[in-house]
Design goal:
This protein folds into two domains: 9-129 and 291-302, Aspartate/ornithine carbamoyltransferase (Rossmann fold, 3-Layer(aba) Sandwich); 132-288, 3-Layer(aba) Sandwich (Rossmann fold), CATH 3.40.50.1370. The chain contains twelve helices and nine strands. The protein has helices at 14-29, 53-64, 74-77, 85-92, 106-115, 130-144, 160-172, 188-200, 211-215, 235-241, 249-252, 284-302, and strands at 42-47, 68-72, 98-102, 120-124, 151-155, 175-179, 205-208, 220-223, 260-263. The strands form two sheets. The chain has a five-stranded parallel beta sheet. It has a four-stranded parallel beta sheet with strand order 2-1-3-4, sandwiched between helices. Helix 5 (106-115) links the parallel strand 3 (98-102) and strand 4. The protein is globular, with a radius of gyration of 19 Å.
Length: 303
Amino acid sequence: MKTKNLVTISDLSREEIFSILRLTQKLKKKPLAKKHKFRNKTLALLFQKPSNRTRISFEVAMVHLGGYVLYLSPREIEMGKREPVKDVARVVSRYVDGIVGRVFSHKDIYELAKYSEVPVINGLSDLAHPCQALSDIFTVLEKKKTLRNVTISYVGDGNNVLNSLVMVCAKTGVNIKIACPKGYEPNKEIYDEAVKTAKKNKAIVEIFADPYEAVRDSDIVYTDVWVSMGQEQEKEKKLKDFARFQVNAQLMRTAKKDAMIMHCLPAHRGEEVTDVIDGKNSIIYDQAENRMHVQKAILLKML
């Protein structure tokens, strides 16, 4: 890939995204096809936030490629507190071949990328979650066999997941309809860019105040937690503001009969979603597994 870092989906061209998807298809069929590719290469995971899927999927992906992973937990480095981010970037990048950052503030991942001498991958920030979005769009392609004329309805908070999802949909020509309460829309700059990009790729990006209108005749219904890590103090207000935006059986009846349910996990059953997430149309665990396959492709392209 031309880009050195993967900070947001905007760092990737449409062609680069489809190249990652094609490579992922091959790697999922033969997980150990590149088992010696990263011999003597090391990937550092610099995490300010704990993780399940992001950590495990990157570690296993790197092992499958023959490399080594160094996990640095939130307590060990205290990046930005004990030591400035730019110093961490300059030092760690002299030891390793790539860095995955999982941070609270997007400015920290941006600073890591700015001062690192090796490729930096955003494993999550408050603004973006590009690896999740690439895994999501791969899962859609895997299930639908095409991205043409596919419509995703995202119901919930305009958070980092949505910021990345809306852009990857726009770049790959997937329609996305967003339902969120007023004041919880996705980042305006990203949304405006997505609308322009979608138009070029003959896709539609829309925001709705009514979740039923947004979900009508959709192929996929996607949701995420209403209260993200670090926002616990906002829980009471958010539960009230999002009460109409729960993905449940009644809402799913508005979508296509065979509509699939996606969620990036962890899920809070009884809040943003009911037990429909455990039904036959749920593809959340395939979605989670695909994090590993997609990230393996990203590592091969970048390292």
